[in-house]
């Protein structure tokens, strides 16, 4: 938006509720930025890319768009399906040039992971970095620039030619320029928006003073399973449990149930379709929605996807087997230097299963804000209201910091200004008109997206 002699069409009505599944209507926007998060959830790996309704909407379109693959057959959603907590039921997901080397990880509650590196082997330093790597993979989506594949610049030109992306990128970023960073930010905002906090666990935790207290809405088996999950085991010198719980909390910490930082491999070192051992897998998705409330699995488990029976996972931890050459197994699984032997009873295993079922919600599987916006691979973006701004000035006003917390500064060229501005909400409604000097306190605004207008110029701002 900072260019001279440019006519900028800026829609101040937001994206959102669909009249049909293939139409994004700019008159309403799904709530991505201000969703309710329980007070006991304290982790958040969002840093410099806060969720906005506009950005997450663009991310949703990118996530479901098969044009992001070289042959127009695969989208991010092909391997991360809403009906399975954004995981895959296949052991190895199908790409355009074969199948993936690891099972596709569930994306549920990615925002609330304490571990900020992504992929099973943690090769992506951030969710933003992760977002476009599958697109640039020869097997998965095919814009690798190798092995005869088109490169990422080919994808940028491809998307930039689409009318709906011209509309979306202009709305979110102020111009039609498609860049990898913008795509990464939008995809990460959408993925971070995918949250599940309507489980039986959440109902019980809201009524309890802490995670360890018995939950009044739980059955006896569910409460016992929770206690087994949270309590550390007591081992003898041979690594055999002689008391305590199963110790799952040591790696999957409640109430987010995400993997702890600096975890190491869990003893599962196989490779899909190969006898080669792989010791690099040190991450895990959240255990929330690992199974649905009815106990059915949201796809197979572990990076090998070897089984969709939760009991097999419990059996693995019940009696750890260390493969030859595995010197990087997590020490928490090696008490006293010995592979752990929990020796859980059949009843204890069933109680753990009963508890894990309470971590599944309902809303995430059907909420339209996370659903496919395309019909037959087609989508239309509509706008009922827009403002056309003609900028013919030599100097433009700038706003900083943006995003902001308490307030903003405004400069016109190199000078602070003393003038009047108008502040609009994300729906285009005028909130306030006020005079300004060097600093404007905006404490009265709630978290979200707003627009500041000075004369015939406009700037989008984000309140954190």
3D structure, described in words:
The chain is α+β, with helices and mostly antiparallel strands. The chain folds into three domains: 6-197 and 366-382, Cytochrome Bc1 Complex, Chain D, domain 2 (Orthogonal Bundle); 208-361, Cytochrome Bc1 Complex, Chain D, domain 2; 394-463, Immunoglobulin-like. It has ten helices and 18 strands. Strands 11, 12, 13 and 16 form a four-stranded antiparallel β-sheet that branches. A four-stranded antiparallel β-sheet has the order 15-14-17-18, with no helix packed on it. Strand 11 (397-400) and strand 12 (407-412) form a beta hairpin. Helix 8 (220-230) crosses helix 10 (346-357) and helix 9 (310-318) packs across helix 10 (346-357). The longest helix has 14 residues, at 180-193. The model is unreliable at 1-21 and 385-395 (pLDDT under 50).
Keywords:
globular; Cytochrome Bc1 Complex, Chain D, domain 2; alpha+beta; Immunoglobulin-like; disordered N terminus; 10 helices; four-stranded antiparallel β-sheet; 464 residues; 3 domains; 16% strand
Give the helices and strands, then pairings:
Blueprint: E1 6-10, E2 23-25, H1 53-64, H2 76-79, E3 94-95, E4 98-99, H3 127-131, H4 152-160, H5 163-173, H6 180-193, H7 200-207, H8 220-230, E5 233-235, E6 241-244, E7 252-253, E8 258-259, H9 310-318, H10 346-357, E9 380-382, E10 387-391, E11 397-400, E12 407-412, E13 415-416, E14 419-425, E15 430-436, E16 439-441, E17 448-454, E18 457-463
Parallel strand pairs: 2-9
Antiparallel strand pairs: 1-10, 3-4, 5-6, 7-8, 11-12, 12-13, 12-16, 14-15, 14-17, 17-18
Helix pairs in contact: 1-6, 8-10, 9-10
């Amino acid at each position: 938006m900072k260019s001279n002699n440019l006519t900028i069409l800026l829609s101040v009505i937001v994206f959102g509720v669909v009249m049909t599944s293939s139409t994004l209507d700019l008159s309403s926007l799904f709530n991505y930025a201000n969703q309710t998060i329980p007070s006991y959830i304290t982790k958040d790996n969002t840093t410099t890319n806060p969720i906005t309704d506009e950005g997450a909407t663009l991310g949703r379109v990118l996530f479901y768009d098969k044009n992001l693959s070289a042959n127009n057959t695969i989208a991010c959603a092909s391997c991360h399906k809403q009906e399975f907590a954004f995981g895959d039921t296949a052991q190895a997901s199908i790409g355009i040039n074969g199948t993936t080397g690891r099972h596709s990880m569930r994306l549920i509650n990615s925002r609330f992971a304490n571990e900020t590196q992504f992929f099973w082997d943690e090769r992506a330093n951030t969710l933003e970095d992760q977002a476009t790597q599958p697109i640039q993979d020869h097997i998965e989506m095919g814009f690798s620039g190798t092995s005869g594949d088109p490169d990422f610049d080919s994808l940028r030109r491809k998307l930039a030619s689409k009318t709906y992306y011209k509309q979306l990128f202009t709305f979110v970023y102020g111009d039609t320029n498609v860049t990898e960073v913008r795509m990464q930010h939008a995809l990460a905002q959408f993925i971070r928006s995918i949250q599940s906090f309507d489980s039986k666990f959440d109902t019980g935790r809201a009524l309890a003073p802490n995670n360890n207290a018995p939950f009044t809405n739980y059955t006896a088996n569910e409460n016992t399973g929770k206690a087994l999950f949270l309590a550390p085991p007591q081992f003898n010198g041979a690594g055999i449990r002689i008391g305590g719980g199963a110790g799952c909390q040591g790696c999957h910490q409640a109430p987010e149930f995400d993997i702890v930082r600096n975890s190491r491999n869990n003893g599962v070192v196989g490779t899909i379709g190969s006898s080669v051992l792989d010791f690099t897998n040190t991450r895990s998705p959240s255990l929330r929605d690992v199974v649905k409330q009815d106990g059915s699995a949201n796809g197979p488990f572990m990076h090998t996807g070897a089984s969709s029976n939760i009991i097999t996972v419990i059996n693995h931890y019940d009696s750890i087997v260390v493969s030859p050459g595995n010197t990087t197994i997590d020490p928490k699984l090696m008490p006293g230097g010995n592979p752990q032997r929990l020796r859980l009873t059949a009843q204890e295993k069933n109680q753990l299963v009963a508890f894990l079922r309470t971590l599944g919600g309902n809303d995430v599987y059907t909420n339209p804000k996370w659903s496919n916006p395309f019909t037959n691979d087609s989508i239309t973006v509509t706008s009922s209201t827009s403002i056309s701004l003609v900028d013919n000035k030599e100097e433009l006003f700038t706003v900083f910091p943006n995003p902001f917390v308490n307030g903003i500064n405004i400069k016109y060229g190199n000078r602070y200004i003393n003038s009047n501005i108008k502040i609009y909400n994300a729906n285009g409604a005028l909130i306030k008109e006020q005079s300004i000097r060097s600093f404007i306190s905006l404490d009265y605004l709630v978290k979200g997206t707003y627009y500041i207008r000075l004369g015939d110029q406009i700037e989008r701002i984000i309140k954190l």
